[in-house]
Fold this sequence. Notes:
5% of the residues lie in helices and 51% in strands. It is mainly beta and 174 residues long. β7 (111-122) and β8 (125-135) form a beta hairpin. The chain contains two helices and ten strands, in the order αββββββββββα. The longest helix is centred in the first third of the chain and has 4 residues, at 11-14. Strands 1, 2, 3, 4, 5, 6, 7, 8, 9 and 10 form a ten-stranded antiparallel β-sheet that branches. It holds the Pfam family LptD_N. Belongs to the LptA family.
Amino acid sequence: MKNVNLAVLALLLCGGVHAKESDFAEKVYVDAVKQIAEMQDNRVTFSDDVIITQGTIKIKADKVVVIRSGERGAEVMTAYGKPATFFQILDNGKPVNAHGDSIRYELKNRLVTITGNGELKQEDSQVNGDLIRYDIVKQKMIAESKGETNRVKTVFLPDQVENFDKPADKKQDK
Length: 174
């Protein structure tokens, strides 16, 4: 997917971490069992074990629907699965994993939305919610939950966990 920036969601969790810029200069490859192009509707649907790669970005889904308006760069891409997954290596070398029932990316608006059992995980933090929305331009994330708990869950790992397997003389000073 061209310019898929879901990993930027991790900015709020990781402070100053940036998506791997070189990924967005790479070609986008889509591998699927089936592709249906509906030219009059400007829609392409990829289905059955869809894998999208662009640099270090990897998206896996049961189905991906790409809708293009008349304007170049205004595509809306939506990945569906149980779950649809996203993976990227950031500039600092840390991986970002995300998943949900659907992952929608509006290229022109730079808006990423994960819906249904959403989770965004970076090495030292994790956010769970029914809806995770990220405005890339404003660098603003909103996470919401609906249903029985109506709660969004965020986990930050303490330094002790990060240093657990290091010798005592190599642990970070407080």
